[in-house]
Every structure is written in structure tokens, then in C-alpha cells.
Amino acid sequence: MGLSVNTNTAAMNAYRNLSNSNDAMSKSLERLSSGYRINRAADDAAGLAISEGLRSQIGGLTQAVRNTQDGTSVVQTAEGALDETTSILQRMRDLAVQASNDGGLNDDAKSSIQKEMSQLKSELTRISDTTTFNGTKLLDGSYKGTFQVGANAGETISVNIGKAMSAKGLGVDGVNVTGAGKYSAASGASAGTVSTSNATSGAPAVLTVTAASGADFSVSGSATDFKGLTGQVSFGGKTFDLGSVSYTNTDTDGSGTVDGDDYLAQLNAAANSALGLSTDAFAASGSDLTFTVTDAVDGYTGAGGAALAANGDSTAAEISAATATFSGATGASDAITAIDDAIKTVSSQRADLGAIQNRFEHTVNNLNTAIENTTASESRIRDTDMASEMTKYTSNQVLIQAGTAMLSQANNSTQSILKLLQG
User: Fold this and answer.
1) What is the Cα–Cα distance from 413 to 409, expressed in whole angstroms?
2) Which CATH class name applies to 34-168+333-384?
3) pTM for the complete prediction?
4) Exposed / middle / buried, residue 422 (Cβ in 10 Å: 0-12, 13-18, 19+)
5) Partners of 17 in the β-ladder
6) Closest Cα to residue 199, out of 318, 306, 293, 319?
7) Domain with CATH 1.20.1330.10 in the chain
8) How many angstroms separate the CA atoms of 133 and 147, rounded?
9) Could you report the per-residue pLDDT of 391-411, keeping only the tens digit for each?
10) E strand residue ranges, 211-368
């Protein structure tokens, strides 16, 4: 090879190798400092695409774990409330068994038992209405939740609580140990009857209780007539137990005598408290006792049914809200059967919720295993092998030092041409 002044091929070769070593060391520094083998698509285009897909799965699985844990919380909230519901029903059953002991109890004792029964029924309904999770009611019979328990579409678990756990939903709203449905139409011809006219546009519904022969709810009525009232009146989402009133011989209206009007006033006072009314709903005429609401109650507003559109445009919900319903009392023996059925219903629902909770827990375990394995796969593609990369970095350092020295030597090699020129 000839000696040339204009072109120093050896220096160019040394410079190229030095540049390559310097670039390689820069990449090693980047990988060592970031911890990632792939910092940009150019580092490994295929590896980047694969690892991003794995990252999507990891993120989705991680969120799915949180979703599943939310599902567990929902189930635990509902089951915890049903645990107390079961306790209440067990207490009600004890009371019903106690009230069945006719040989050892008089009417006043049974009336006292019924007072506790009424409070327990109200508490069943309150628990059903107020048990919520993040603002969603769980026990009113409408809950249907779907939980995303996977990273991909369609990977869900559904939780349904399709039966209301209120006193009415469980079929114990009519439990009354003081009688046997005396004023229920289903009790036979010898007992009183109950009829209801549905609310219409411009007019509220009227519920009429017709007493058995000889009963009187007018001014000449007695405490015995009113104490014979049993069953439940439901209106505006609330329930009033007719048998829960404690009638006293009190001159309520100041007439100087205790008569049917005073007992009617006591009945209205109890109904107003239970149903949240401000205007007396019960009125009496001989053997007929009517129930008509004219003030605002949960979706039904206005005296005389003003909430129901006069033009006939009332919705089904408005008409339903303005219509009272009646359910007959059970009596002590029938109460035991009704409560047993309610306990079975609640126990069945609790068993379903317990099974779903176990499923959620297994799902969380499976998701955590999937996260671990997927993360390991993504790490193998994306993360830096620090030991291997440190070896490369050290090698590149040596090559840079050698390349720098060789470039210096190559640049000095042309000095020999000067000796020829000086000769």
C-alpha cells in the first residue's frame, strides 16, 4: 500500500471503529441507567410490540383484581346485613312460638308481643331499604351487578339479589299474633272484608275496611271494635300494622266522654307516625273504616290527589304511589310458618352470596398468578440484564480506549512521509 498525505485510510478505519464503540457504550449507559433493554422502538421493534401487548394485559389484570375485590366487598356488605335479618327473623319466630301458648297468655300479653313484632318488621324493611354499596341498594330486590374480573371483554361475574328482603318481600309483613286475619277478605264470610279502589287521575285511592257483624267504628264504637283490627296497610313505601295500636280510655277530643271518635283519633295518630302523614287518613262510618291519603307521601303529592294529572297523563308509578294496599294478619300459628319460609329464603340467599364470595376469592388468586407470570414474560423482553449489559459496557470502555490510542497512532503514521521529504 502506498503512502498518501491526502487520505489516511488507517485513521479513518480507527475512527469508524471508535465511533461504533462509543455508540455501543452510549446504549449500554442508557440501558444500565433506565433498567430497560428497549427504550425506543429502534432498539427492538418486534420486542416493543410484544411487550406493550403484555403490559396491557398486566394493567388489565391488576385492575381486574381491584374489581373482584369490590365484588367481594359488595357480597360481604349484603351478607352482613342478611346476617342481622336472620337474627331478627329468629327473634320473631321465638315471639310467634311464645304467642302460640294460648293457655298461658291473655290478649294483653299477645298485644305486647305484637308491638315488638311490629318494630322488628319495620327494622327488616329499614335494613332492606338502607343497605347500600356506593349508593346502590343491595337488598330491595333490584340489585344486579356485573363485575369485570379479567383483562379482556366478556370476562365477568354477575351477582343477582332478585328478591326484596323487606318484611313484605319476605312475606312476613302480615304477621300478627293477636288475631287470625279478622278483617282480611281471605278469612271467610264471618270476618270483615277489605276493598281498595285504585287511584285515578285527579283522585286518590280509597281503602275500605268493613267490620264483621256487630262492629262499629263510628262515635258509638268501643275499644273492642278497634282492637279487633288486624293486618297491614301499606302506602308510599311504608307499612302500618293495624294491630300495633295501644288504645287507651282517653278523652282525646275533649268531649267529656271516651267514645269511638277518641279511638279513631288514636288510630290516626299511630298511622300518621308510621306512614309519615300530616293529615288523618282514617275516617269512620258505621261498620266501615276508610283509608284515604290527601297529603304528600313519596311520589304522591297534593290534597285530593292533585299529584295525579287531571288530564289523565298520570304515570303507573304515580298511580301506584297513590294507592294503598292491605295484607291480612296471620295469627300466631300461621306466623311460625310464614317466618320459617322467610328464614329459608334468607338462608338460601346467604348461601348464594357465600358461594359467590368464594368464587371471587379464587378469581383473585388466579389473577395474581396470571399477573406474576405475565410480568415475568414482559420483563424478559423489556428489562435489561444488568450483568450482561455491564459486561458489554466494560468491553466497550476498553474498545474506546484502544480505539482512541490507535486513532492517535494512525494520525501519527503520516509523519514518516516528512522524513522522505526531508531526505
Assistant:
1) 6
2) mainly alpha
3) 0.64
4) exposed
5) none
6) 319
7) 34-168+333-384
8) 14
9) 888 888 888 888 888 878 877
10) 232-235, 238-241, 282-285, 288-291, 325-327
